[in-house]
Amino acid sequence: MNLDFSNEEKEFRKSIRQWMKENVPDDIRRCTARGAMLDKNMQQRWERLLGSQGWLTSTWPEQFGGPGWSATQRYIFDQERASAGAPPTSPFGVAMVGPVLYTFGSEAQKERWLPGIQRGETLWCQGYSEPNAGSDLASLKTRATRNGDHYLVNGQKIWTTQAHWADMMFCLVRTDSTVKQQQGISFLLIDMKTPGLEVRPIYSIDGHHHLNEVYFTDVKVPVENLVGQEGMGWTIAKFLLTHERTTIAGVADIHYEINRLKSAIDALPTETDKQLAVRRLAGLEVDLMALEYTNFRTVAATDEGKPFGPESSGLKIKGTELQQRVSQAMVEIGGLMSLPWDNEEPIGEQIFNQASRRYNFLRACTIYGGSNEIQKNVLAKMLLGL
Amino acid sequence: MDFKLPENTTMIADTARRYLKDNYSFDTYIAQLNESNHLEANRWQAMNDLGWFGLPFAESVGGYGGSLLDVCAIVQELGAALCLDPFVDLIVSPGKLLEFANTPTSLSLLDRIIAGEARVACGLYDRHAGYHVLNPSLRLNGERLSGQKHVVSDGGVADTVLVSAMSGDELVIVALPFDACDVERYRLLDGSRAASLTLDDVLITDEMVLCRGDAAKQAVSAWFDYLCALDCARMYGACRELYQATLEYARTRKQFGTTIGSFQVIQHYLVDAFIDLQQLESMLLMVSVKGESECNSERIRATSAAKAYYASQAVGIAQQGIQIHGGVGVTEELNIGHYFRLITHASLSNGNREHHITRFCQAGGE
Q1: pTM for the model
Q2: Which of A278, A293, A379 sits opposite B285 (nearest CB)?
Q3: pLDDT tens, B114-130?
Q4: CA A344, CA A256: separation in Å to the nearest integer?
Q5: Nearest CB to A318: which of B279, B290, B305?
Q6: Which CATH architecture describes the domain A245-382?
Q7: B239 Cβ partners below 8 Å, 6+ apart?
């Protein structure tokens, strides 16, 4: 038993902290501190900056261009990144299609797509959900029909985050409707500029445009964009559910949010208000500590070569719940100050000014990436044998 | 970081589990529940033979130098077995207070505890001071001690009690015989035995005062944190068993022609309990290490966080365990309700959630 970081890890932390101090752009830092959303330019500048250090793909094995960090180092990096006020990176390229390509892709696919992800140049989006295939993903209907050296894709995807920014989409499509649902699904890479592909915005309750509908009408996709074989799509999707989840709980960003809220307590009207807020925050901090030590255990286990399996779903469930509770606390503690929506000048403390947008935004986090109820169904089956 | 238990701790835990499996069944517990004397000679001797009496204490004071982690491993198994043998009340609790007090008189009394020769209890609580152990309501005026102590956990058999009192502004710890007090004995929520003591101008000689002032405060404060960690260990052991029993019940209990574990709502309750149990285990590992830290703020932060967390989540698992069992969960015949009482009890001894949230806020650090 040892709950301390090693001296080498402490040195690593120091060097990352120093780099963050010198390199996180001021406009990005200010934007995060305000609790506002980054625009495409800021997000991409930040990811390219990390890419130029070789740190964007820190979870990748060294042979595919990862920096060779241990899980502990990746965890420390994430802590320092968040506490410096830098945003998390977009998961679609780095955490999703990248690992899929180096695990299931052909040499040609790896060569063609991995470098762009590594450098933060190619932006990806995820084409999974459909209007009638949400939690019941396997019932998806978007069709890909083989036609010589290409597929013709027809159908519709929905809730596609950042489709309006993306260069590429990785997409689950039905290539065979004569077999069992799960076995007829394939994994395709689709260029967002292909004719017949149309992106329409969906505005979410935080007032922003993150989500989209994507329509496909005879979209031509070259067969070399099929990953693995036809019918392997479901296997690939499941692989992503347990792949590298040591920072999925969002512990580092929850710490940052709690500290932001702490710094705003002085702006509350009375001593009683302040005391109640401090106690409520303490309750959240205690819950965060339980999440964090569980996270430490998964990190330590990963470094010993015994990564957690489906148990790590607990981190996603608890982490997203806690993100929501912290954002709710921020809105409720801010009270009157949380009500203005589109004003330039905050009334009172700046931090509460964007709090209600963030609170609205985070209602989605227990839904995306497999709703928490679906995660629980999976856990009940895989772990509890129910 | 490394979360693997040291080999020695694993051995201690395995031994405790095996010993209790062979010697302490649910029937043993029910029988003991109805006794007013909880010191059963054979099992007491067996624990002594296992080396548990010396384990919690440093080698320099005559113990075997076990860590808090080791003691938590035993207490976890005691909780899992619902064991009422007063190992904590008569050995660990008074022994650690005496060790932390670290005076010649306290250490010689500790010698006798380790040897299994003394029946000493801690009397640090009274209803007027509540959980504020550094400001008890008992008063030492000159040589005379007066006031009350409540919930003095002693297995129903202690003959000596370590009480805290204020002497002016100073905290003092005094060892005195039960005989000097008016004693009322009763059972507690978890089935253990305790007493209320009324002291009326009891004569205190100098050699009965073990320590005073800052030294006494430091000793009581360290004792409180140590006991908080043990509360968590006990609750974890109980929760672990209760969860397993509930899962098993959901797999086998049939209603509407199928097992209730096939219903999604039951599955989700159980997954929630699984995840909470995982986090409770993380908090236990954390507090088992940091609960004896010499840095006061780190120690207080760790124990109060753990105790506050247990008071909501462990209690939550216990409540849900009863709910999933349905009617049979609220009966005396089934162990589930007894685990519920144990967990509720441990969440209220040595500080409830509110007390620990306050203490966590005041601890600073991080």
Answers
A1: 0.96
A2: A293
A3: 999 999 999 999 999 99
A4: 24
A5: B279
A6: Up-down Bundle (1.20)
A7: B277, B280, B314, B317, B318, B339, B343
